[in-house]
Amino acid sequence: MARNLDISLLRAFVAVADTGGMTAASGVLNLTQAAVSQQIKRLEEQIGEELFARDRRGMKLTGAGERLFGRAKRLLALNDEIWTEMTTPEYEGQVRLGIPSDIITTYLPTFLKNFARSYPRVQISLQSGSSARLRSELQAGRVDVVLATELSCDPEGENLVMDRLVWVGARGGEAARQRPLPVSIGCSDCAFRAPIREALQQVGIEWRSTSEVTNTSAQVATVAADIAVMAWMASTVPEGLEVLGRDSGLPPLPPFTVNLYLPRDGGDHIVQELARHIRDAVAGPRRMVA
Q1: Which CATH class is domain 7-87?
Q2: Does 3.30.110.30 match the CATH number of domain 96-290?
Q3: What number is the average pLDDT over the span 34-59?
Q4: Predicted TM-score of the model (pTM)
Q5: Of 16, 78, 143, 234, whose CB has the highest number of CB atoms within 10 Å?
Q6: Pairwise CA distance, residues 101 & 110, whole Å
Q7: Where are the domains of the chain?
């Protein structure tokens, strides 16, 4: 005869094991302490084993409790996954994401995969360009969500990351010592252009632009070839290049931010969900880059 475990009893068991006591678990489960105690008693009766040993320091898992704990967590995770899958509406459509090319490789994979799994019928359209242009596209209604790299976050935006803007060059390269300083820079409205110009002017270093392109690969190639240096966010420095320290003779650059922008009305459910995935993936682990 088939025997079925009660999910609510397992949830109470895991909560007590995780928190170390009935009182704390009752807060997690939003139940009274007596109700949690009763659920643990019922589960122990069903299994025929004591699951907790009680002492002055709290409640500890017995051998049987240890055997059950990992399996119970997996069963609860599967239960919650099935519940979410079966009760979440199937959304369809398209969401348009604007993101500068220099942060695509670092930031995009952190949230895009999970979003695509959660909303398999939603098509994600990517647009790349300068932060200024992408924000203009957002205001015009041609983009739904924008990640922007900026000196500061405007009131209508949400700051996710504070990063360092650093000088980057080829490993063991000599470009940083050339004068005028050869700089590989982005397009005319690149957010890094003004900070670069101001920092170099303050210390009296003449410079020249070796490339003004929106193609990140071209910028990186000129630096890797040691015919220029460039300014880049510390968390996104391409592999194979190195951050140039004070011994390079180049002035420090200001910190930069990665900011999230949505339509003025907040956007629809899909826009909000993409924004949530971005926050969860980006803001938590990268809030302040050392």
Answers
A1: mainly alpha
A2: no
A3: 91
A4: 0.68
A5: 16
A6: 15
A7: 7-87, 96-290
Instruction: Please enumerate in sequence order all residues whose Cβ is within 8 A of that of 225, keeping only pairs 6 or more positions apart, or say none.
Output: 170
Model confidence over 77-117: pLDDT tens digits?
999 888 887 887 777 889 999 999 889 988 999 899 989 98
- State both tokens at 208: 């020249």
| Sign of the C-alpha dihedral computed for residues 145, 151, 154 and 157 taken in this order | positive
Q: Helix, strand, or coil here: 11?
A: helix
Q: What is the Cα–Cα distance from 142 to 231, expressed in whole angstroms?
A: 29
Name the residue among 33, 4, 226 with its Cα closest to residue 15: 33
Q: Which conformational region is residue 172 in: left (phi greater than 0), alpha (psi within -120 to 50 degrees), or beta? A: left
Q: Measuring CA to CA, how many Å separate 76 from each of 5, 7, 12, 66, 80?
A: 11, 7, 11, 16, 6
Query: pLDDT tens for residues 144-171?
Result: 999 999 999 999 999 999 999 999 999 9
Provide the 3-class DSSP secondary structure of residue 40.
helix
